Structure formats: C-alpha cells, structure tokens
Amino acid sequence: MLKRVGLGIDTGGTFTKILAVSESGQVLRRLQVRSEPHLGPARFIPRVAAAVRRIERSLGRSAQTACLAVAGDVDPVSGRLRRSPNLPAFEDFPLRERLSRALSRPVEVHNDANMAAWGCYTLEFKRRCPNVVGVTMGTGVGGGVVLDGRLVTGATGSAGEIGHVRVAVDGAVCRCGARGCLEAYAGKYGVTRIALELLREKGETARGRFRVGESALQPHHLAAAAAQGDRLAREVWRRVGRALAVGIVNVVYLLNPDAIIFAGGVSRAAPYFMGSIRRALRAETFRAPFGRVRIAVARREDMGALGAALYSLEGPH
Amino acid sequence: MLKRVGLGIDTGGTFTKILAVSESGQVLRRLQVRSEPHLGPARFIPRVAAAVRRIERSLGRSAQTACLAVAGDVDPVSGRLRRSPNLPAFEDFPLRERLSRALSRPVEVHNDANMAAWGCYTLEFKRRCPNVVGVTMGTGVGGGVVLDGRLVTGATGSAGEIGHVRVAVDGAVCRCGARGCLEAYAGKYGVTRIALELLREKGETARGRFRVGESALQPHHLAAAAAQGDRLAREVWRRVGRALAVGIVNVVYLLNPDAIIFAGGVSRAAPYFMGSIRRALRAETFRAPFGRVRIAVARREDMGALGAALYSLEGPH
Prior knowledge:
2 copies of one chain form a homodimer.
Chain A: E1 6-11, E2 15-21, E3 27-34, H1 41-59, E4 66-70, E5 73-75, E6 80-83, H2 95-103, E7 107-111, H3 112-124, E8 132-137, E9 141-147, E10 150-151, H4 183-186, H5 188-202, H6 206-210, H7 219-227, H8 231-255, E11 259-263, H9 270-282, H10 287-292, E12 294-297, H11 303-311
Parallel strand pairs in A: 1-4, 4-7, 8-11, 11-12
Antiparallel strand pairs in A: 1-2, 2-3, 5-6, 8-9, 9-10
C-alpha cells in the first residue's frame, strides 16, 4: 500500500513554499511561487493551486488534505487571517474555504510559527519530547507550543505568540505598538536596532564598521561579523541572547517544557546568542524545570512548510 | 447506585484541609488539622490518615482514591516534594507512597496551585471554558494551567509557576532569589513590600497610617484601608494590578486562554487591583487573544482542597 503524502504550503510576505512530504518528513517535491500579496488573495489562490497540481502530476500521487501556514494571527476555526503585518490584503479573506475549493480537498489554516513548532516536534525530536516550545526568529519572532504531543491553539488560535512576551519594562517599541516585546529585541528589526544603538553609543557607523548602509544592516551581516570575532557584533548577539533568556525563563515557568527549539533565519546566529541564554538559565535558583529543559536549534530549514505538511497528515482538528 | 466521593487534602505550612466532596463539587465533610511540619512528615501521615478515617466514618462512605495538594515544587511521578519554602522538612519524603499505604488507596500528589486551577476549571467555569489559567495569591503567587480540559503538568510537574514569571527587569528580589518575579509584587510579602516602599517615599509609617506595626502590615489591612478610600492603599493595589497585568499579558500571548481566574486570600482585594489589569489589557493592540479572555475571581474558598478532591475523581494520570 502506498504511504500517504503530506502537503504543506507556507505563505510569507514574499514567497510561498509548497512541500509534498512523506509521513516520515522526507521531502518528495518542493516548489516556490511568489506570494504577490499586492495582487490580493483572489489571485493568490489559483497560483498556489496550479503549483500544487504541478507537484502532484510530477509525483504521480495526490495528498488527501493540505495545510496552509501563514504569518499572522490566524483563526483556525474560520480559516481566515485576522491580522497580518506581511499580508494585510489577505486579512478576513476566506482562505481555507477558497483554497479547499481550488484544491478539492479539506484544508486547514494555521499560524506559520505554530506549524514550525509542529515540524520541530515531529522531525527534530521525533515526537520523543512530548512538550516542546518552538521559537521562530525571522522578520518577527513567532512561536508555537506542543504539549503532550498536541498543538496548543488556545481560545482564538493565537497561542504561542512568544514574540510579544514582555522582556523589558518600557522597552523598545515593537511593530505591534507595545513596548518591550521579545520581537523588538530578537526579530530582524530588533537585532538591527540593537546594533545601530550600540554603534551610536560608540560613535561609529554601520558603513564604517560593517561596510553596509544603516538601512541595509541585517542580522546576517552581524552574524558574519561575529564569526570573524567583531566585538561589537558579539555584544549585539549577547544582548539578543539576554532578551531571549527572559522570554524563555517565562516560558519555562509557565509550561515547563522538555525542550525549547529555535528555527528561522536569525536562529542561524545561535552560536553567538546561545551562551547568554545558557548563563541566564543556569542562574535560576528554582532548578527543577530548568535542569531538564533542552535548548536546541532546528537543523532543517523550511520548518513552517514541513510542519504544515506533516500536520496535514494528523487528521482534522 | 451511590455517587462517588472525591477526597482532597491540601497541606500548607500551618494547616492541612481535608475535604470530601460529591462529583458536582458539593462539600460533604470538611476537617482541618495542623500540618506541624517541624515534627516531620512521618508524624504528618498518620495524623492525616486519622482525620480521613474520621470523615469517612461520619459520612458512612469511602473515597476510592485521594489527591494531596502541597505548596511547593511537586514531582507528580515520584509523588515527592522537590522543594517547598513552607515545608522544607517534607522535601524528598515519599509522600505519595506513605499516604497511599496509610489510606489503603491510590494517592496522587500535585502542586496546590495546580489543584486550585483544576477547581476553578471544574467549579467556577463548570468545564465550559476549555483553557483556563488559575492564579493563586497567598503567601506566594502560584498558578495552574488547564488546556483543552486537561491539567498541564509539564516535563517535571512544575508547569504553571506564574509567580516566577518576570514582570520587571532588575526588579524586587523574590523569595526564590531571582529579581522581578510576579510573586515579589503580588504575593503577601510583595504587597506589604510595595506598601512599605510607598510609606517611606511619603515619609509616613505603617503605624501612623494603618495603626499597625511595620512587620504586622498585611494585605488584608491594605484591602480594608482601600475599602475606606485610603489613597495610599489604593495606590498599592494599583501597583499590584500593574504587575499582575504584565504577567497576564505574557500568559495570554503564550497560551491564549479563555479565562484567567484569581483565587486565594489576597485575591479578595480584586476590586482594588482589577481596574489596573483591565486598563493594561485594553491597551494591547494585538486584540484577538485579549478581546476574548475573561478575567475573574473565584467565588469559593479552599480551591486547592476542592480541586484536589475533584481531581481525585478523574482517574489515574
């Protein structure tokens, strides 16, 4: 008997990644299309459906369900995006219903970080850690919670928003409008903000130190500089690590997970922020929950699409 | 057929409350004995067992299982207290095993705030809110998490420790040794500390303003003063409310619960701190999780013992 195929679609502000995977998480086919959110969701749906057909023709098999992961606040019950800084034109559009019709199969819609957490739980930990918190570090900071092997969605599907956990009182302003959110310290713009702040303190410029304009300064420049031993870049990542540590301390006290795992582009800089996290966790005197928690970095990329593909095999939720 | 009886035992630093309840949470018998932790756990077990026998004789029925709620970090797997500021002599004692032998029935041991959260979930919300976070305000601040109608215990049984979620950076020192824990702002000693700080700022004394010595100043004095319109006492509770709000904001972003409910003695002052919480939650711009969450105060007392009694009816975990 043929094994089932999982179909995951991960839509970000620029690209939509489509993966067909085996039950064990092996990628069978991969395709990327432009999200082109400015053209609106009505144009997005047929483009994705065409890509899925292409994948399935080439594979000679079809997935019976699909799961769409989207950056933003998703209502999994209505299958709509309530709010999305990256895809404002998609807000309130009946994504699930239209995609389900276009693909002629049941579709679920979830937050991308929730799906990434599911991917980490199933692939990185092989379902052996029942309680996993995933932290995605990209443009923003997202998160997902798996407890007792089940994805936690919460009352409105918004659970796992670790990016908005407060790590500073009257701290830096976040995109959400509040102050002191973890995202304002550990997402792309947060990391860049910390670097520019430090440069200003030292009377230096991004161009002078990193040979890149202020508006072009990105976490990957700072990771590369840290790799070469640049002290200012190292200090940036230590500050990122300390902010992440406050968020993680809160997560551990509330949920006492077996593991916390980082995913997403900015998590590649883990060698430069992990030390600060470990130091902060070692300083906690309430040892039971901290002695057991594993802090890890996802080895695979595309965790949102992978997690969505595997979640599509879990049956209706 | 006779309905089953739930047996809950809630052990604090001074008293142990024993409740026999019906499946619907009606209290059938109630007994209180001294915990006398200084005499050690070996003397505690027979005292509790004798009280249970007295209850069951008077009731003419026996519970088939029992659940012990204890203030401290409980390992529900081994049935031992790993750490307890109120019951240090009980640490590492095989509580579950010895109590189970003395009562001739299976016993579970859980953190008291986890049991209080279960009590709130089953009694205050009649199991109609699947995702509930309970916050107990007593000497310390504890918490428990119920998601999808199941108690979250976490990897080591330590989940729900909202009292150690950080609400201030480099804030007040907590009993646990860390700084800025919610407990240092909203537990008994935290509330008193805020009041003494405010009195000092104003050049006043506790005796002058509240007719009570500095070391005797308790949250209930401050609640009584607030009820009479005392402005300093009102300001104390506003500060408590603002600290609670930071903790609640973090809880809502991580777990997106249907309801957050306060229990325990200090929660009686809710009329004086709830306004600050509601104002803070209204200010959050990310509305979906905040628009739906109910913030409530438990109407019944003894939530730890009640929750334990009802949890004993849930079958083995």
